[in-house]
What does this fold into?
Amino acid sequence: MATLFKNIKELIQVRTEPIPFVAGKAMSELPTIKNAFLVVENGLILDFGTMASCPKAAFSEVIDATGKMILPSWCDSHTHIVYAGNREGEFVDRIKGLSYEDIAANGGGILNSAKKLQDTSEEELYQQSKERLEDVIKLGTGAIEIKSGYGLTTEAELKMLRVIKRLKENYPIEVKATFLGAHAVPTEYKGNKDAYLKLLVEDTLPKIAKENLAEYIDVFCETGYFSVADAELILKEGKKYGLIPKIHVNQFTAIGGIQAGVNHNALSVDHLEVMRDEDIEALKSTDTMPVSLPSCSYFLSIPYTPARNMIDAGLPLALATDYNPGSTPSGNMNFVVATACIKMKMTPEEAINAATLNGAYAMGLEGKVGSITKGKQANLILTKPINSYGFILYSFGANQIEKVYLKGKEISI
Ligand code: NIG
Ligand code: FE
It folds into this structure.
């Protein structure tokens, strides 16, 4: 039951020896094999090499990739794709001059999405979310992290996480679930943040743990949302149930959230639009992956992560979409990598490493996806005929993907 891809113009992100992630200068190295073959069996990568060493055995399927390239599927380590409705109205309000902060202060923003989600049935929420998941799969995403955080009541947070679980069961894509109850203080708890934190810790968290609905715990550590002390409390309480920390930090202000994340061994610290020297310093020689979300910067017209300073300081960097109704209504990783090159001065090699190998690490999936390595899942992007892989990023806004494969199977949704 093996499939052979032959005459691949270039096989991209080939890692013979598995490595967890790449950092600093190593991010600019993207190993490839030109004129390559790839064999897939039982959903996994079985073999690869140059056409000169292509096995002559009979295969159940042979795919001629002449002129086309293959790369591992995108690994999108930060999304909020389970949400109800949309916030197009706020988009127009911002065009007319209101800021993201103004809108949130007027009861819009995350609270607007929470109201919609609370009023939406679990079935309807699943139907809306599955369309988004199918869309991003078609755009080449082969592993995805999805957060709760638009429920803001125990019941609605559980509803979101159950929808994530159902998506995970029903689609061949790798899905990781994150509990983000501390996303905003709900209207009913206005001025009483500590009572909301108490609810999360004493009621919501135990129920999530009991149903085994999340692997990660996240918190929006930001001025006007949750303080560093709040974040530390949430991460610490999550850890008691085996949830691994992740954290939204430094989106609008730098208040020490990165240091808190690092101190709690966060798997990733995400957003990083505003970075001080000490924030870069704090990330050095840690196991914490910095994650940048350039589509969010693009959509909100806020600064981009200073990727150059970070990579030049020797740090790794992952790229993700942040797909959500408020700050990034797009889950297109092709746009993310292009934007990282155009706006953040990352090279195509750095951007591809950041969106595959490093993204996989930020989901604890580096042993399963993110590179062309024997034994990893055959989650693959087959491009249209192109002359170089850099063209995928250069031709921003266009789609250079011909087919996508998850666990070795061509996806037709
Ligand atoms: O990651 N920053 C916090 N949360 C989301 C957006 C929330 C929203 O506006 O709905 C984000 O950008
Ligand atoms: Fe986010």
Q: What stands out?
A: Residues 78, 80, 248, 322, 324 surround fe (iii) ion (ligand 2) (CB under 6 Å).
